[in-house]
Predict the 3D structure of the following.
Amino acid sequence: MNKNELNPDASPQAAYGARLRSLRESRGWTQEDLANRTEYSSVHISAVENGRKPPTLRFSRSVDRALGLVGAAESFEREYREIRHGALLEGFPEYVKYEGRAVEIRLFQIGLIPGLLQTPEYARTVADGDVQRGAITPEQAEERVSFLAERQAALVKPRPPMALVVMDESCLRHAVGGAEVMEAQFRRLVEVASLPNWVLQVSPFEIGARRSFNLPVNLLTLADRSVVAYAESQARGHLERDVTAVVPILTAYHQLQAEALSPAASVAMINELRKGTP
């Protein structure tokens, strides 16, 4: 029987299907064997593997149970949520995989509190705003908030990564939701700033043109000390692993840290905003 060649690079959905086939075949199972272990037919499984039918949350959970991947970092539920995150930008799914293995995380954000620091209420308000604009569906908003919670939870472990965050002052002054949402978000920032593995700094408006970046930037240091960079525009994201391209970004980040307020001064600014003092 001829078997279709799969191209996992064609799309996130194609990568999902190709990995499903690979794991199924590595166990010596036919599509019928996998069908007998799930509530789906072999025809349905073939359609997902070949990209003719998109995976669903229910299908992903069923496959995870059959393959023994429930709760695992490489679960199909997690991959599904990455696909359905709501128009994931190019490069972001791969970035998230690196994020979970990083020993150091460096973030720079403009306009919004960085996702890893957002409270559920803040994240929900941002997602709901995208729904109101028609950018995503309510279902995608739910999955986006859930996916963010998973990323945050993945960093809570016995040896968490060192996380260094520089937020443009606009992140603090851009009101998201009502006063209660912002108060809870500010409180969360102050709490995180007191943790030994987090360093929070604010890049004040006053540094002007000395600010190194005009777009959000993420830098991840892995256990082998290699560094990957990820940056987004409005239309797409780009993951960079080439050292000749990453080193200048890392240098610019260090320069930004030197220009930013100290951690203590940054917390003081957050507390002043909590009191309603400009």
